[in-house]
Q: What sequence folds into this?
C-alpha cells in the first residue's frame, strides 16, 4: 500500500472517455431514429425496453450495494462506496427514461391482423383481448385486468423507481454531509435507511421484474422470475462497478484500491454468477419437471432453432465462463482477467435480458443469426454511452472520490484477504 | 551437547512478535514455525509459507463427488432399470443436476475436512501436536529448531532483545503427549 493517498482529489470527467461516451450516445440516437424510419418500430421499442431496464437495474444495484454494505457494517468497501453512490444518483434519470419508453410503447399503436395493438406489452395491453366477440378475446388475460391495466401498471413502476431513487439520493447525501461534519451520526442514519431500503427493495424488486419484463408474455408466469432477475441485476451491477473502478484507477484516480479490493469484487462476480445460474436453473427445472403445457410454452419459444444457439450461449457466457475463469485465486487478483470478465458478463447479461424479451415479442425470424440486426448493438452502445456519461458526471460532482470521514475507512484502506 | 530440541520465544503482543520475526531473519536464524491464538494478516508472506493447496483438493473432491453420483444415477435410472417418469426419456439430464450438485458439495465438504485433519494431524481421539499450550490462549510463539542453530545463547538474546516475555528451551518437540 502506498503511504500517502490524496483524499481531496476531485474527479475530472474529460478526455477520451467523455468524447467516447458522447459519440456512443450519438450512435444510439441515430440507431433509434433509423429504427423508426425503416419500419422496425416494434423491434426498436423492444430494444429500448431492454436497455432501459438494464440501465435502471444497474443503477438500482448500486443503491443495493451501498445499502448492503451499511446494513452489514462492512469495512472493506468503504473506500469504493463513491462509485455505487454515483449509480444511485443516476437512478432517477434511468427511471425516467424507462418510464418514457414504457409509456410511449403503451400509447403508440399499430394494426396487426386488423387489431389495434400497442408496440410494447401487446400480449395484455391490446384492447381487443378484453372485448368479448372481438375474435381474439382471451379470458385468461381479461381475468388479469385488475392487475395488468395501464394506469395501475405505470403507477406501480413509477412508485418503485421513485422509492429506490429517494433512498439512493439519501445514502449519497448522508455520505457527503459526513465528509463535511464527521462523526457517527450520518453513519447511523445511513444504517437505518439501508435496513428499511433492503426490506422494501427485496419485496418489490420481483414485482418490478414481473411488471417490466414478465408481463411481455402475460399468459406465462414464474415465481422464480423475480429472484432470477435480482441475481442478474446484482452480477451486472458488480461487473459495471468493477469496470468503472478499474477505469478510474487506470486514469490515476483511486490510488488506494489494492489487489485485495479487486479480489473481493471478483469474488462477488464469481459467487453471484453461480447464484444466477442457480435461479435460472431452478426456474427451468420446475417447468421441465412439471411439464404443464402453458408453462412449457415459454421455454418452447426459446428452444426454437432461431433461439437455441443464443439460449446455449447465454449459459456458456454467464455460467461456464465465470465458473472456469474466476475460480482460481490468482485470476481474481489479476486486473486484466477481471476487466475482461467484467466486459464478458456485462454483454452476457445483456444477452440474458434479450433472451427474456425477444422470443415473446419479435418472435422467430428466418435464421438464428438474423435475430440480431444493427439495432441491437446500436441501441446498446447508445445506452452504454449514456450510462458512462451520467455516472462519470455524477462522480465528478463529488468533492472527493472517497468518503473520507467514513468510520470504517482505515479498515478498508488496510483491507487484506 | 545440550539436550534442547526447540527454542520457543513467547510474546504477548502480535506486533512485537512480528518485529521479532524480522530480527531473527536479519540474523539469519531459520524459523521453524509460528503459533498464534488468532490469524495474523501478512504473516504467511513474511515467513515464506507456500499458498495452501486446500482449494485444489476441494476442487478434486468436488469433481469426484459429481462424477460418482452421476455415474450411479446413470446406472440406476438409465442402464439397469429405466422408468417412465412423466413421459420423459430415461436419460433426463436436468433431473440429474440437483443430486449431482448436492453430492459435489457433500464430497467437497467431507473431503476438505478429512484433508485438513490429515494435514494437521488432528484426528478425533488423538492428542493434538502442540509446542506450547498458551499458543492457543494468549501467547504468540516463535519456534526455532535448536539442532544446528548454535550457539543457543545468541538466539535467546535475540529473542530477549525483541521483547519476548518468556523463552523456553524444550527437550521435546511436542508437549502435548504427556
A:
Amino acid at each position: 500500500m502506498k503511504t500517502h493517498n490524496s483524499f481531496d482529489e476531485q474527479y475530472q470527467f474529460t478526455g477520451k472517455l467523455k468524447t467516447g461516451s458522447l459519440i456512443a450516445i450519438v450512435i444510439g440516437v441515430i440507431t433509434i431514429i433509423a429504427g423508426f424510419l425503416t419500419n422496425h418500430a416494434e423491434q426498436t421499442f423492444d430494444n429500448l425496453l431492454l436497455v432501459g431496464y438494464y440501465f435502471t437495474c444497474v443503477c438500482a444495484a448500486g443503491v443495493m450495494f451501498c445499502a448492503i454494505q451499511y446494513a452489514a457494517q462492512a469495512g472493506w468497501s468503504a473506500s469504493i462506496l463513491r462509485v455505487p453512490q454515483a449509480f444511485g444518483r443516476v437512478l432517477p434519470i434511468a427511471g425516467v427514461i424507462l418510464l418514457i419508453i414504457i409509456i410511449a410503447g403503451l400509447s403508440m399503436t399499430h394494426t396487426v391482423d386488423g387489431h389495434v395493438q400497442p408496440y410494447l406489452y401487446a400480449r395484455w395491453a391490446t384492447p381487443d383481448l378484453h372485448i368479448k366477440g372481438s375474435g381474439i378475446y382471451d379470458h385468461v388475460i381479461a381475468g388479469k385486468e385488475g392487475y395488468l391495466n395501464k394506469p395501475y401498471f405505470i403507477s406501480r413502476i413509477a412508485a418503485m423507481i421513485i422509492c429506490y431513487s429517494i433512498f439512493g439520493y439519501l445514502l449519497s447525501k448522508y455520505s457527503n454531509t459526513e465528509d463535511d461534519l464527521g462523526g457517527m451520526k450520518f453513519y447511523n442514519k445511513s444504517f437505518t435507511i439501508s435496513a428499511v431500503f433492503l426490506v422494501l427493495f427485496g419485496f418489490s424488486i420481483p414485482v418490478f421484474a414481473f411488471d417490466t419484463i414478465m408481463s411481455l408474455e402475460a399468459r406465462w408466469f414464474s415465481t422464480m422470475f423475480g429472484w432470477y432477475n435480482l441475481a442478474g441485476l446484482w452480477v451486472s451491477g458488480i461487473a459495471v462497478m468493477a469496470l468503472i473502478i478499474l477505469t478510474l484507477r487506470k486514469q490515476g484516480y483511486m490510488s488506494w484500491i489494492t489487489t485485495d479490493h479487486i479480489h473481493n469484487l471478483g469474488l462477488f462476480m464469481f459467487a453471484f454468477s453461480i447464484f444466477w445460474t442457480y435461479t435460472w436453473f431452478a426456474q427451468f427445472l420446475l417447468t421441465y419437471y412439471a411439464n404443464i403445457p402453458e408453462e412449457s410454452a415459454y421455454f418452447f419459444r426459446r428452444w426454437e432453432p432461431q433461439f437455441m444457439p443464443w439460449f446455449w450461449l447465454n449459459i456458456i457466457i454467464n455460467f461456464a465462463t465465470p465458473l472456469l475463469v474466476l475460480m482460481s485465486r490468482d485470476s481474481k487478483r489479476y486486473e486484466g482477467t477481471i476487466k475482461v470478465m467484467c466486459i464478458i458478463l456485462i454483454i452476457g447479461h445483456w444477452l440474458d435480458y434479450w433472451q427474456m424479451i425477444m422470443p415473446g415479442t419479435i418472435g422467430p425470424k428466418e435464421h438464428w443469426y438474423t435475430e440480431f440486426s444493427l439495432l441491437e448493438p446500436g441501441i446498446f452502445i447508445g445506452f452504454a454511452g449514456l450510462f458512462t456519461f451520467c455516472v462519470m458526471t455524477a462522480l465528478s460532482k463529488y468533492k472527493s472520490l472517497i468518503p473520507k470521514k467514513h468510520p470504517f475507512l482505515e479498515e478498508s484502506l488496510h483491507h487484506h484477504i | 551437547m545440550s539436550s534442547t530440541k526447540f527454542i520457543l520465544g513467547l510474546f504477548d503482543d502480535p506486533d512485537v512478535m512480528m518485529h521479532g520475526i524480522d530480527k531473527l531473519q536479519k540474523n539469519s536464524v531459520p524459523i521453524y514455525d509460528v503459533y498464534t491464538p488468532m490469524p495474523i494478516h501478512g504473516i504467511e508472506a513474511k515467513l515464506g509459507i507456500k499458498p495452501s493447496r486446500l482449494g485444489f483438493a476441494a476442487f478434486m473432491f468436488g469433481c469426484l463427488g459429481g462424477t460418482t453420483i452421476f455415474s450411479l444415477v446413470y446406472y440406476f435410472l438409465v442402464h439397469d432399470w429405466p422408468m417412465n417418469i412423466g413421459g420423459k426419456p430415461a436419460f433426463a439430464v436436468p433431473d440429474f443436476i440437483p443430486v449431482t450438485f448436492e453430492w459435489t458439495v457433500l464430497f467437497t465438504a467431507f473431503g476438505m475436512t478429512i484433508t485438513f485433519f490429515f494435514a494437521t494431524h488432528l484426528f478425533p481421539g488423538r492428542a493434538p501436536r502442540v509446542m506450547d499450550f498458551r499458543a492457543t490462549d494468549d501467547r504468540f510463539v516463535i519456534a526455532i529448531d535448536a539442532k544446528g542453530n548454535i550457539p543457543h545463547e545468541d538466539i535467546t538474546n535475540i529473542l530477549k532483545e525483541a521483547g519476548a516475555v518468556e523463552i523456553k528451551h524444550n527437550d521435546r518437540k511436542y508437549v502435548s503427549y504427556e
Q: What stands out?
A: Chain B has a mean pLDDT of 90. The longest helix of chain B spans residues 93-120. Strands of chain B lie at 6-11, 33-35, 140-145, 166-170.
